[in-house]
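Re: that backbone. Tokens:
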């Protein structure tokens, strides 16, 4: 009977991006970047909860989009998730502009 936990060696990278890519491919089944974006979005949304919910959503989605732009070239997320993040930002900014008028 095998061990119930993963003992994969991910220390073969020479720098932090290589380490993240190794963890993403070997241990997280490709979901490391997605979970990272979700965590950033939720943390920013909770941190900005004292302001207007629409502005908190727009700000959180914008920061998530900036992070996604950096994660795509690293290979941690695909462009599909970048597009989802951009659509969320557009929706948040649109709601802010509609409320302003």
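Recovered sequence:
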């Amino acid at each position: 009977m095998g061990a119930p936990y993963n003992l994969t060696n991910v220390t073969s990278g020479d720098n932090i991006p290589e380490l993240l890519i190794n963890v993403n491919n070997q241990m997280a089944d490709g979901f490391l970047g997605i979970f990272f974006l979700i965590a950033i979005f939720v943390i920013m949304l909770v941190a900005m909860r004292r302001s207007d919910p629409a502005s908190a959503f727009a700000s959180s989605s914008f920061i998530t989009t900036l992070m996604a732009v950096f994660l795509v070239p690293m290979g941690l997320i695909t462009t599909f998730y970048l597009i989802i993040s951009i659509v969320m930002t557009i929706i948040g900014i649109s709601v802010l502009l509609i409320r302003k008028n």
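The mean pLDDT is 85. The chain has four helices and no strands.
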